Amino acid sequence: MLSICMLVKLEGATLEEINQHWDWLEQNLLHTLSVFDNKDDIASFVKGKVKALIAEETSSRLAEQEEEPEKFREALVKFEARFNFPEAEKLVTYYSCCCWKGRVPRQGWLYLSINHLCFYSFFLGKELKLVVPWVDIQKLERTSNVFLTDTIRITTQSKERDFSMFLNLDEVFKIMEQLADVTLRRLLDNEGFDLDPDLQEPSQITKRDLEARAQNEFFRAFFRLPRQEKLHAVMDCSLWTPFSRCHTVGRMFTSDSYICFASKEDGCCNVILPLREVVSIEKMEDTSLLPNPIIVSIRSKMAFQFIELKDRDNLVESLLVRLKQVHANHPVHYDTSGDEDMTSPVVYSTSMCSDHKFGDLEMVSSQNNKESEKETSPRLHPEALTAVFQQSGSQSPDSRMSREQIKISLWNDHFVEYGRTVCMFRTEKIRKLVAMGIPESLRGKLWLLFSDAVTDLASHPGYYGNLVEESMGKCCLVTEEIERDLHRSLPEHPAFQNETGIAALRRVLTAYAHRNPKIGYCQSMNILTSVLLLYAKEEEAFWLLVAVCERMLPDYFNHRVIGAQVDQSVFEELIKEHLPELAEHMNDLSALASISLSWFLTLFLSIMPLESAVNVVDCFFYDGIKAIFQLGLAVLDANAEDLCGSKDDGQALMVLSRFLDHIKNEDSPGPPIGSHHAFFSDDQEPYPVTDIADLIRDSYEKFGDQSVEQIEHMRCKHRIRVLQGHEDTTKQNVLRVVIPEVSILPEDLEELYDLFKREHMMSCYWEQPRPVAPRHDPSRPYAEQYRIDARQFAHLFQLVSPWTCGAHTEILAERTFRLLDDNMDHLIEFKAFVSCLDIMYNGEMNEKIKLLYRLHIPPALTENDRDSQSPLKNPLLSTSRPLVFGKSNGDAFDYQKQLKQMIKDLAKEKDKTEKELPKMSQREFIQFCKTLYSMFHEDPEENDLYQAIATVTTLLLQIGEVGQRSGSSGSGSQECGEELQASAPSPEQDSVFADTNTGKIPQDSQGFPEGAEGDWTISLEHILASLLTEQSLVNFFEKPLDIKSKLENAKINQYSLKTLEMNRQSQPELKLSSL
Fold first, then answer.
1. What torsion do the CA atoms of 913, 919, 924, 926 make, to the nearest 10 degrees?
2. C-alpha dihedral sign at 376, 380, 383, 389
3. Which of 305-309, 457-461, 601-605, 903-907 has the lowest mean pLDDT?
4. Positive or negative: CA dihedral 42, 44, 47, 50
5. Compositional bias (Low complexity) spans (predicted)?
6. CA angle 689-690-694, nearest 5°?
7. Cα–Cα distance between 838 and 510 in angstroms, integer?
8. Cα-based angle 919, 920, 926 (whole degrees, multiple of 5)
């Protein structure tokens, strides 16, 4: 009863709940406990009942979250009955639709669960069931056919399925897209993917969760906010925009740490208000001209007026709670020194900043904190490197300064009207200023504003200094890679031709690797960081790098650069859409995609002169990845004619490289600096020069119509294709290694690989994570990415192994797994699994016997083997049998001489370099015989095989006993031969297995002599030679085996076998529910 009390205590969160649970158990369960015989059964019964009740309550609670709970419960019952998944397969939603088979539509129901897309139809007496795992989907798209204008097409490796006639196709497609994305990234891309907290437990995912996730991702992408930022509310409203002297219609987004606004007209006006910048949020008097208004005041003495807000009271209340929490977590300390330097926490209002001096954008801790940090922290570089390493350009100083001064004047005018802090109004006007190129004196500060890295900087005073202190001096693989690339980072620039710039670059890269070990350091980060250091202080450059790596270019800087590959794939689609003639000429756009990889990874910094590339970075920090897409299209458009005339990929590369290397910046105050990887810069003939400002302007005018929502949708679609491409690469590389080493046909190996991977996936679907079987790890070598544990191996063994032994199969599978688990990590790879199967199906007889032999000696057979108490320890293996056997015609034949000669021949032919296997003990030999006996069950030649194995077993027992006696007496081999002499028995004594026809084992017999266990041994050579004396056994082990039929059955039964096992585990609950 103590265990029951503990269980109830664990399931109840409060004392009141515990008492309620206990009262229920007393009323409903205790009176039934008398039917059980022992305490273990009682505990198991109660535990199962409590778990079943919890599962039922969870299911009901999830159903209540749906719009129509009763209909959802009804659909859930049908889903479970029709597809018979384990209980852990959670249904998310369902829809009525048609599934097309050729030109014939089948009306039915589409069920979307956490791991599968399922369709059921019963039409004109024909039942149709489709089950497609999300991880098998290679393409998910909206398309049209001859009959319908809008369908959803699901493409897997082998089939295409079209679904149509939905009431709300947009909703269905978004849910399917979210489910596919979440599941594929959870199972195939856990290297760089962190699920939202609400989606951490797949069995709790609901339709609402997926819709909220889609909204969250759009919100974070649109405003380029941190991944952990959670959206709370979206509501229509209007914002007073003083520059247009009217209210602008749009939507307000509120999250953990931000209030954001986006106008309905794309690009008209966006605002980002970090709550740490907010001073107050107040409700104003409601009037007919200003319905439901609120005022949000910020530190720079600006105020934002929002009107037409529904449920204003609750909105303001929730915002005030979060505002208080943000200020408590990140208090702002004011600098009392009074000087208006760039580190003062005061953020100037627009009226105070009419001159060109840029107001403070940083908020740090107090003066005392700064002084203490100076004493303990490493010395950081205090200013941007361009301020130290000034370069003289080709233009006259007056000309250079006048151009810069004009730009600064334009920006200052803009600051006065639109604001100069992170809370500025972001309009089309500022986009045009950015496209012209940001003045060098303002570049670093505006990068901080546009990326909102300024908020991270202000929220983490002293963080970077501590990171530098912790990380510097440590040596590891990452720091070695960083050291190797330090002197390759903008070597043409004087800032990185001396230790000052190199040391700053080393500190930033090492600190970031220490902050984010999942990314660590990737090539191209050095080039990006070196440019950031040119225009920003060292600490600012660090936070800019954080913003780029962790939110502006998600999943770019990891082991497989998935994010960059996804964007390359999106770029291909944009080429087809905007440059169809070029796409038609270049049939394989992957060549262009490979050329453009560095465009995305380094933001054109590595393939364009630096003074031009920084203008691209300006646009990137303002517009995000959209700027890189449209600039890439503009580059291809400018070279479309030459690219269409190119004969091969090499010529296309030359065309683009020459063009990019000759992009100049006429407004740059510094001298020209070539691109880090510039090609063909030593042309004999002059090449036309393109001005970067003109190229950027063309990119906005021709290709600037892509919205963030469209780009995110394309990213989601192409991420599926990229992840599946990696899966195909992994599969091909594993098969390429395995094919030469086995005799199984390549197409059968592919089927085996799919079964192996599916077994791993099914455990991820429905089993609680176990420390032995980790998730798929794409960072490991190809052969080690998918591994299975003992339970998963047992399932596959039962499905595809030819050595099925009835109830003994599971035990044989356990021993096989232990044999294959060389490194004792309780996991095996595909290669080991297939090598073992290859011996079973295609090995020579001696290879098969050797494998069986190894399965019955350590490490495969252990002292604690659950089948060690064999029922064969009885006169089935009688040691009183002679070595002379009666033949069917009554004649006697002596096998001794033949056996001795065969053993000698085998010993001579044995490879001297092969490690000799240990001899088999009597206990191990009993297990070996039992396995053979089980393998022959239901074979067409069953009786002959039983008789043959009885003969061989008796022979081997005699050999073992003779060896035991000769070993104990110290006599030689000749004496052994004399001991083998025996008289011929009558024919009826020949059968070692007492009743081979029925397979029954006599129970009234004596076992082995007690003293025989110690030194009784038999070798592999003895066993092999003995088996060769029986033709029926030779035929059994040498007959051809068909793996194809096994594979077909395995594909059909793999799911049902797993479901059966899962249901068996939950059998106590099922039994309890019927009581």
1. 110
2. positive
3. 903-907
4. negative
5. 963-975
6. 155
7. 49
8. 170
pLDDT at position 715 is 93
Distance CA 272, CA 838 (A): 63
Q: What is the sign, positive or negative, of the torsion defined by CA atoms of 135, 138, 140, 146?
A: negative
pTM of the model: 0.80
Give Cα 142 to chain centroid, integer Å: 25
Query: What does DSSP say about strands 787-788 and 91-101: parallel, antiparallel, or unpaired?
Result: unpaired
Specify the pairing of strand 663-664 against strand 690-691: parallel
Predicted confidence at residue 806, as pLDDT, reads 84
pLDDT, tens only, 518-565: 888 988 899 999 999 999 999 999 999 999 999 999 889 887 889 999
Cβ neighbour number for residue 220 with a 10 Å cutoff = 22
| 708 phi/psi in degrees, rounded to 5 | -60, -40
Quick one: which H or E segment has residue 126?
A: strand 126-133
Among 586, 601, 570, which Cα is nearest to 636's? 586
Eight-class DSSP state of 33: G
DSSP 560: T
Q: Which amino acid is at 621?
A: F
Contact of 539 with 382, CB cutoff 8 Å: no
Tell me how long the chain is.
Answer: 1075
Which letter, b or e, does each residue of 701-740 get, where b requires 16 or more Cβ atoms within 10 Å of its Cβ?
eebbebebeebbbbbbbbbbbbbbebbeebbeebbeebee
Q: How many CB atoms lie within 10 A of CB 164?
A: 20
**Helix/strand/coil for 1028:** coil
| Token pair for 144 | 């049209």
In angstroms, the CA 309 to CA 303 distance is 17
Place of tokens 């001005």: 691
Q: Which residues contact 878 (CB under 8 A, 6 or more apart)?
A: 954, 957, 992
CA distance 937 to 945: 9
CA neighbor of 425 nearest in space, from 284, 618, 293, 248? 248
Give kind and range of the element (H or E) at residue 863.
Answer: none
876 vs 870: CA distance, rounded Å: 12
What are 1034's strand-pairing partners? none
